[in-house]
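Technical note accompanying the year-one report. For the benefit of new consortium partners, we illustrate the data format agreed upon in the data management plan: each record pairs a sequence with a C-alpha cell string. No post-processing was applied to the example shown here.
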Amino acid sequence: MLERAQKAEGQAASLSSNQRELEQSTKKSLAEMSTQLAEAQRDKAKAESESNALKSSVGSMKESWAREVKGLRGEMKKADEGWIQERDEVLAKNAALLKLVQDQS
C-alpha cells in the first residue's frame, strides 16, 4: 500500500509539474499572440490610413487633371476657330485677287 501511495505521489508531482509547464507555456504563447495581435492591428490601422490618404490624393489629382483637360480643350477650340477664321480670310483674299486678275485680263 505504501508503494502505491508513493507511486501516486510521484505521479501527482509529475502531473503538477506538467501542469505548471503547460500553464507557463500557455501564458508565454498568449503574451506573444497578444503582442502579434497588437502589431497586426497597428499595421492595419496604418495601412488603412495610408490607403485613405492615397484615395484622397488620387481623387484630387483626377479632379485637377479633369480641369486641365477641360481648359486645354477650350484652348484648342479657340485655336481651331482662329485657324478657321484665318483660312476663310485667306480664301476670301485669294478669291478677290483672282477676280481682280481676271478682270484685268
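Partners are asked to follow this layout when depositing records. The CA atoms of residues 1 and 7 lie 10 Å apart.
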